[in-house]
Amino acid sequence: LSTRPGIRPGAVALVGASLGANLAALAAARGAAVRAVALISPSLDYRGVRVDAAVMKKIGGRPMWLAASTEDPYALRTVKELMGAGGAYEQRLSGARGHGTGLLVADQELAGALVDWLRRTLIF
């Protein structure tokens, strides 16, 4: 993305939900051009697609937005563990029932919070 016309270098974020959250984290760990990453309902291990301390270390101090439903025990536990890795991380917990993109549908305020975070993080 950073090489495409009209894309400002340093203003690329990845957003993923459920399995996509794990894939976004892995891609951000490999791509220095990714300035920020947002994970919605991530899993420490989704059928072998792992987000662990090594992945978080590679992401480093880049901004990260983590969201989960308080009604989704595994995603909630994952968010809490990933928050413990330190960094410029923002956590959003929702009382709405939902997982992945379904959580954004169930909690419209969460979707707005994600957009606000992206604006604050990428517009400098």
Written account of the structure:
- The chain is an alpha/beta fold and 124 residues long.
- Helices cover 41% and strands 23% of the residues.
- Strand 5 (64-69), helix 3 (73-83) and strand 6 (89-94) form a beta-alpha-beta unit.
- Helix 1 packs across helix 2 (53-59).
- The two termini are 18 Å apart.
- The model has no long low-confidence stretch (mean pLDDT 92).
- Through-space gap between termini: 18 Å
Structural class: alpha/beta
Q: Give the count of helical stretches.
A: 5
Largest sheet: 4 strands, parallel
Shape: globular
Helices and strands, in order, run as: EHEEEHEHEHH
Number of strands: 6
Tell me the Rg in angstroms: 14 Å
Per DSSP, what share of the residues sits in E-state strands of 2 or more residues? Answer: 15-25%
Mean pLDDT across all residues, rounded?
92
Low-confidence region ranges: none
Would you kindly provide a brief summary of this structure?
Helices cover 41% and strands 23% of the residues. By secondary structure, it is an alpha/beta fold.
Task: List its salient traits.
124 residues; alpha/beta; 4-stranded parallel β-sheet; 41% helix
Secondary structure layout:
Layout (H helix, E strand, L loop, with lengths): L11 E6 L1 H12 L3 E7 L4 E2 L2 E2 L2 H7 L4 E6 L3 H11 L5 E6 L6 H6 L1 H15 L2
Parallel strand pairs: 1-2, 2-5, 5-6
Antiparallel strand pairs: 3-4
